[in-house]
Amino acid sequence: MKYILGIGALALALSLNAFPANAKGCIKGAVVGGVAGHLAGHHGLAGAAVGCAIGHHEANKDDKANQNAKPSYQ
User: Fold this and answer.
1) What average pLDDT does this structure show over 1-22?
2) How far, in Å, CA of 36 to CA of 19, rounded?
3) 3-state DSSP assignment of residue 59
4) pLDDT tens digits for 15-62?
5) CA distance 54 to 48
6) Phi-psi group of 44: left, alpha or beta (phi > 0 → left; psi -120 to 50 → alpha; rest → beta)
7) Calpha distance 73→68 (Å, rounded)
8) Distance CA 74, CA 48 (A)
9) 10 Å Cβ neighbour count for 12?
């Protein structure tokens, strides 16, 4: 159990770094989904995969909303 919590803490610490990622939202979603999947019957890998997909989708949705809100003066 300590090993799993250690890996989770490491993943969370790495996801909070301020480096740009091509897969926006994926790391954060994978960490949350992995923990939720693990707690819901030891399906951490499946939870991480689904969390990554949902996190990426939400990040793209936010980017599109911000583009529509800002007028382009080019």
Assistant:
1) 71
2) 25
3) helix
4) 666 555 556 778 888 888 888 888 888 888 888 888 888 888 888 887
5) 10
6) alpha
7) 13
8) 40
9) 14
